[in-house]
Design a protein that fits this description.
about 450 residues; alpha/beta; 5-stranded parallel β-sheet; 25 strands; about 25% helix; globular; binds flavin-adenine dinucleotide
């Protein structure tokens, strides 16, 4: 009899794991259970479909169940929810009471949006952007019209991506943020170009503000913020996510950071025969040298592949994460890698930081734009611990460079000394990264 892998969850982590397991063991029987109607799609692309930059929702789908059956010999079953796991017997229970036996189980159940504990937060016009189903609901609301005014709750990357999509659909958009300023994950001078882009887009952002309640009002909503009310057509929540760890926890899998399923570097949980990966699982942090919970697509696909290889008998080992993320609003890119000074200090480092502004290309070239770089390093050792970048032009490549340097454990001095290329239309003679690193080692121009 063929050994059988059951995967719960049919998106980034689950299908990366299934595909890697197939590559590792051509004889394995592989069954993927997905409770929703969709599999193998880019949740990260949803804001761009809502905003109209991606023309069709099908453009976000990599492969359908027929592809997996015909090309990979993987059975993908949609509309099947795993409701329980009997680890001793090696069985998954579905919502219909069916028992699906397994020899190896990969739990890749992702995360769900967190709705703030506010009256009315479940009302019809309060929407989220998490998966294809929720994106279709938002799109249907916008198509139905007339929707003119929207409130976005939360100004993290997801909130701002949602806000930009609504602006592109012609809505007036305002946002509220409970923190004292927008994009609190970034240092104030790094967030500044993004805040300027929010202003330029005509978006009012109320900071230090609290959503207190939402009530229906005909086809719209009345929202109470800090005692005042506003009439709006829809509310989009960008208030964070929580791991879907309950089914694995009920089967005895230990939970770790953020309430996610604790896994080792091979993706193994504390229960024999059960692996986990992606937003539902913890991940090893390269600098902190402990498990963290960082729900990102990059982590999900990398962890899925490692677990898939390991459970199929191959060599799987997860190198770790730095929590590298990036986003964009109004043509301004922004993101972060590694530790900020607060987290670095809590972890026992002696953090120092520098912020410098440079140009994305040679200043005399037409259309150059500012780039702000923040670097964080450990004072006694000089080790680079993290960085943040925001501005116009090439932000992703600069964040990638910081990620390589932090991941390799380089001293900040090495970034200052790096032999980076230069040509006026692409990069300046002294890159903003080197301006910041130079300032860190006392070599300011
Ligand atoms: C709008 C948006 C934009 C994003 N942009 C980025 C980005 O730019 N960069 C980035 O790195 N990350 C981004 N992310 C995060 C990224 O999408 C997730 O980290 C990634 O999808 C996680 O993959 P996953 O497979 O672990 O979980 P998911 O993609 O959530 O998939 C889990 C699947 O499991 C299914 N499932 C759950 N429970 C069960 C059950 N009991 N039985 C059966 N099936 C079940 C769910 O229906 C779901 O399909 C974004 C997320 C969103 C929502």
């Amino acid at each position: 009899m063929r050994r059988r892998l059951v995967v719960v969850g049919g998106d980034a982590a689950g299908l990366s794991g299934a595909a890697e397991a197939r590559r590792t063991d051509p004889d394995l029987e592989i069954v993927v259970l997905e409770r929703g109607p969709d599999v193998s799609y880019s949740a990260c692309g949803l804001p761009y479909w809502i905003g109209g930059e991606v023309a069709r929702e099908s453009d976000l789908v990599s492969h359908d169940p027929a592809y997996f059956a015909e090309r990979r010999d993987i059975e993908v079953r949609t509309g099947v929810e795993a409701t329980g796991i009997d680890a001793a017997a090696g069985r998954v229970w579905t919502q219909d009471g069916e028992a699906v036996g397994y020899d190896a189980l990969l739990v890749a159940t992702g995360a769900r949006p967190v709705r703030p504990p506010v009256p009315g937060v479940d009302l019809h016009g309060v929407l989220i952007l998490r998966d294809m189903v929720s994106a279709r609901a938002l799109n249907a609301r916008l198509q139905r019209g007339p929707a003119r005014r929207a409130l976005v709750v939360g100004t993290g990357a997801l909130g701002l991506e949602g806000a930009e999509a609504l602006l592109r659909r012609g809505l007036e958009v305002e946002a509220i943020e409970v923190a004292p300023r927008a994009l609190p994950a970034l240092a104030e001078p790094v967030a500044a170009p993004v805040v300027a882009a929010l202003d330029a887009a005509g978006m009012e952002v109320r900071t230090g503000a609290k959503l207190q309640g939402i009530e229906p009002d005909g086809d719209g909503l009345v929202v109470t913020i800090d005692g005042g009310t506003r009439a709006l057509d829809l509310v989009l929540l960008g208030t964070g996510v929580a791991p879907n760890a309950e089914v694995a926890a009920a089967a005895g899998c230990a939970l770790g950071a953020g309430g996610a399923i604790a896994v080792d570097r091979r993706g193994r949980t504390s229960v024999e025969g059960i692996w986990a990966a992606g937003d539902s699982a913890t991940a090893w942090h390269l600098v902190l040298e402990r498990d963290v919970w960082m729900p990102l697509a990059t982590t999900a696909t990398r962890q899925g592949r490692v677990a898939g290889r390991d459970l199929a008998g191959g060599e799987g080992w997860f190198p770790g994460v730095l929590g590298s993320w990036m986003s964009t609003f109004g043509g301004v890119g922004f993101g972060a890698v590694g530790l900020d000074p607060a987290v670095a200090g809590q972890a026992g480092f002696v953090p120092r930081e520098v912020v410098r502004e440079g140009r994305d290309r040679s200043g005399y070239m037409p259309g150059t734009r500012p780039i702000v770089v923040r670097l964080v390093w450990d004072d006694p050792t000089g080790r680079l611990l993290g960085g943040q970048v925001a501005g116009g032009g090439e932000v992703a490549a600069r964040l990638h460079s910081v990620s390589l340097a932090v991941g390799a454990g380089l001293e900040v001095r090495r970034l200052a000394e790096a032999d980076l290329g230069y040509v006026p239309p692409l990069a300046p003679l002294r890159d903003p990264l080197q301006l910041a690193a130079g300032a860190a080692v006392g070599d300011a121009p």
